[in-house]
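Predict fold of HD domain-containing protein; 572 aa.
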Amino acid sequence: MRLFKAILLLMLVVSIIPTVMVGWLSVSHTRELLIRDAQELAQERVKQLRLKAESFLEDPTEMVVGLSSVPGGFFTLSRDTQRLHIASVLNQRPEVLALTVFGADRQRLPGLQAFAVHDMAPSAVAEHEERARALLDEGLTGVRYSDVVASQGGGGGGPVVTLAFPVGDPVQGYMAADLTLAGLRQMLAQERVGSTGFAYLADRHGRLITGGGDLGAVGDDVSKRLPLAHLLKQREGTPDTELFHVGNFGEGRDAVVSAYSVLPEAGWAIVSEQPVEHAYRQVETMERRILLGLGGAILVALVLAAIFSRNLTQPLKTFIATSLELARGKFGVEVHLKQKNELGELAQTFNYMSKQLMAYDMETRGLYESLEKGYLETIVALANSIDSKDAYTRGHSQRVGDVAVEIGRELKLTERELRQLQYGGILHDIGKIGIAENILCKQSRLTDQEMALMREHPAIGDAIIGPVTFLGPVRACVRHHHERWDGTGYPDKLKGESIPLLARIVACADTFDACTSTRPYQKAMPLEKAMEILDNLSGAQLDPKVVLALRAVLAQRGVRLEGHRQPVKLAS
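Predicted 3D structure, encoded as C-alpha cells:
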C-alpha cells in the first residue's frame, strides 16, 4: 500500500503543478478581457436600442414635419386640402394620435385639428392642446418635445409625447402632434438583457417613460437608480452634450453592469442594466471550465497512476484482502491470479488451504447445530417436566410459545425473533424446577412466604439458561415475563417499554393461556371472556399494543387452545 500511495502521489504532483500554473495564468490574463467583453456587449446593446428608439420617434416625426414642406406651402393651400394632408398623416402613421394647426398668433385654426377617434377621448384631445400651447409659449425655433405622459384611453395604453414646431420663415404658424410610444414600450419590454436584466427610457428629469423590469408607471421618479443618477449628474454641466457611458454601479448583490446613452432630439436617456453576477457569468464559466480541466487532469493522472501501480501492487493487495476475509471466517474464498509464476503457485496453495478450512468449518457447524439441538431438547424436556408436575399446566409452555410466535408474526418481527419467541415461550417457566413441589402443586392459595418463593422462579430460570450462549436472547423472556406494564411486576419492577418486547409478548401469551386453561382455582374461559380480561389488563399489566396484536391473531388465524386440535378463533 505504501508503494501504491507513493506512485499515486508522484504522478499527481507531476501533473497538478503545471496544470495549476496554467489555470492561474489563464484566469489572470483572461478575466479582465472577459469583463471588458461583457461591458462592450452592454455598450453595443445600448447603441442598438438607441437606434431603434430614434427610429420609433423619428419616423412619425418626419411624417408630421413633412406637412410644412408641401409644395407651395401648407398655409397657402385651401382649407379642404389642408384637412386632406392632415388626415393623410393620421392614416399613414398610426403612431400619430392627434394633430393640431395653430396660426402665427398661436391660436388654434378652426377646422384644422384631427385626432384618432377610436384612440383618444375628448378629454385627451383637450390635454393634447394644452401641452401644445405650453410648447408654443416657450418660443419654438425647431421641433420640440413635451414631457411624456400616460395616455388617457389612447395610444394602446402606452406613453404619449407631444411635439410642436414652427412652419415657414418667417413663421406663418405652428403645428403640434401627439405621438404614442406604445410600440417603443413593446420593443423595450421584449428586449432581454441576459436572463435578469432590462432596458428603460427616462426623460431629462429622471422620470420613467417606458421600459422593462418592475420600475413603475409612466412619470414615476427613477432618478435614484445609480446609472441614471450618474447620467443626470454628468448632464448638469453639459446638458446638450451627447453622453455615453458603460461601467459597474453599486456594490454587493445590488451591483449592476450598466450602459447608457442619450437621444439627442428628445433629450431622453436610454439605460441598460444587468446584475453583475449574470453579466460576468462568462468569467465564472471560464473559472469553472478551468477547474473542470484541472479535475480532469487530476483524474487522468489518477487513472494512469492507478493502472501503473496496480500492475505492481494488485497481487499483494489481493492476497491481503483475501487473507482478511479468511481470517473473518469466510472459508472457501479464493485468490484469482492469472500469472504463471511463483505468485500463481502461491494462489493455488492458498485456495487449497481455504477449501480445506471450509470443509472443517462445515463439519464444525454440523457438530455445533447438533450440540445446540441437544441443549434445546434437554431444556425442553426440563420444561415438560415442570408441566408434568401439575396436570393442570400440561402443555402450557408449548402453547405459550405457539401463541407468542403468532403475536410476533402479527407485529412483523423477523424470523430470528420469532424463533427466540418460540424458545422463550417454551422456557419461560423453566425456573419453576427450582421451586419446591409442595408449593408448585399447592391446590389452595399460597401464603405470602410461599408467594415470595414462587416469585423467584424468573431469576432461577435466568440463572439456568445463562451459561447456554445461544439462548442469550431468550433470557429476557425468562426473567421478565412477570414484569407489569405499570412497573409493579417482578423481579426487576421494569415499566412500559423498558420491558423487552419479547418478554411483553410472552407475558401476554402466558396470561392468555392461563385464562383459557383449566386450573385448580378456575375453569377454562371462552375466548370472548378471556379477551375481556386481557383488555382490562391492557395498560396496567400488559402492553396495549401486544394485546391488540393478540386480538387480531384470534380474529384472523386463531390459536390452539387446551383440548382443541384445531385453531379456535374469536366469534365474528
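The radius of gyration is 50 Å.
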